[in-house]
User: Fold this.
Amino acid sequence: MIGAAPTSLRARYALAMLAWLIAGLVLIGVSASALFRRHVEGVFHAELEEHLVELVGLSTGGHGRLQLSRPLSDPRYGVGGSGYYWQINRQGRAVLRSPSLGAARLPDLPEDGHAISHRRDRGPSGPVMVYAVASGSGADHLHFQIATDLRHMDRVVAAFQQDLLAWLAASALLLIAGALVALRFATRPLDRLAASIARVRAGQDRRMGTAWPAEIQPLAQDLDRLIESREAMVAAARIEAGNLAHGLRTALAILTDEAETLADQPAGQTLLAQCTAMARRLDWHLARARAAAGQGAITETALPDAIAPLLSAMQRLHAARHIGFSAAGPAVRLAIDPEAFAEILSNLLDNAGKWAGSTVHVDWQADGGAVAISVTDDGPGIPADTVAQLWQPGVRLDESMPGHGLGLAIALDLAQVANGQLTLGPRPDGRPGTRARLSLAMA
Assistant:
């Protein structure tokens, strides 16, 4: 494999268009140059043949007294080094020559009767085109030759080729610019398709719609069907999870009541402990099921709008301890389902409120393509050697605190499903307390 193919459709089309354009312009340049050379050669041949006929017509005098009645009409035959020559031979010897030849002479050509012949040969200053014809017989048999340097024709062709090259280059630039504009116009539906998919991902649109070109319409329809199928699957999964939770919780409640009546017996204590563990495990798996159902949910969450109701709920939940909840940060949009974000942050706020002395503060800031959200409390803090244990379901540092020890584990699972990160540690300002730091991608 020589190289990887371009991954962009525009790049592939542009390369193909550029290759075709270059090939076409090269073909035009070569064929136009060849046609022009053939035309110029035709003009030169016609001109030399006319001059040859004129030379024969101007020749007068008999044996030993050959002369021209007047110079040829083209003055270049009288200028030395002009590249235009004529010569009259008698019996292989030049008896008359054009002043332009000086001391040089044209090569003798084989005679072809009294018909006009021509050929390329070496001249006084380079290749020449020679026209020749024979006239008379015996002592008055003459061989007329007229020639011109091929450099004159080459110069005309070279000038044309130079102009042609400049014209082809300008045409190539104009054609490439026009083709790029046409390419941009032709691929605009692809940009609209990407923007429409992004709006569906962000929850701004529910469907792709129908206003698409015929080539893209089938893809848009298939995407709508896929979205409908996924929504149906998620809705069915949530209903089944709710039904399962209701059925299991009812059975667990009955078992727990029975276990409590036998709490004074070892078997009853064992049964009660197992029921409690089952309840915790049920909450844990239901949270994971909700996370899996929402995985890849193509929505986004806006801050600070999504945080305000959570702070209000936590303010009421921890009103007995007079814990103050506050938040500050810029307006941003997160690439996460609002329900998943609410569950993550409510667990973090609830955990902070249980341990806080008087305040819990939430702040966030954008960093590149991510948003870092910090939940900070002024409680006693968490020992560094116990942080890893807190992520495990059912682990609680203080059994006297209400709860089942699932909040942080659920929050971590939901954060990971959303391709985010969640960490716990001491406050960065060195004061007593704990900071939970949640990092999520920006929408």
